[in-house]
Design a protein that fits this description.
Layout: E1 4-14, E2 21-28, E3 31-32, E4 38-40, E5 42-45, E6 54-56, H1 59-67, H2 69-75, E7 80-84
């Protein structure tokens, strides 16, 4: 990713596990691809090697979808527990 717009650092562990690993989520600068589709790069460093760029109706929509990391984290809660750098749970309610 050439240009990082925003970044969030978290910790995660396998559901019920004790070993916490680092996760850095980066959102890049939105762009128009060769077909004119608005896309925004997202990296999930520490959890996924490749993550598809988010596609939207326009550049703002693509950026909005890429920055909505909570929806993706929520989908992953059945497999992982997420924490702030301080060790506090990321989500207040139990999954």
């Amino acid at each position: 990713m050439n240009f990082v717009v925003a970044e969030r650092k978290l910790l995660y562990s396998q559901k019920g596990g004790s070993e916490k690993k680092e996760l850095t989520i980066r959102v890049g600068k939105p762009y128009l691809d060769k077909e004119g589709i608005a896309r925004c790069p997202v990296e999930w460093d520490g959890l996924f090697e490749d993550f598809a760029d988010m596609a939207g109706a326009d550049l703002l929509h693509a950026l909005h979808l890429a920055a909505d990391v909570d929806s993706m984290l929520s989908k992953l809660r059945n497999k992982y527990d997420f924490f702030w750098d301080s060790g506090e749970p990321y989500f207040e309610d139990p999954s």
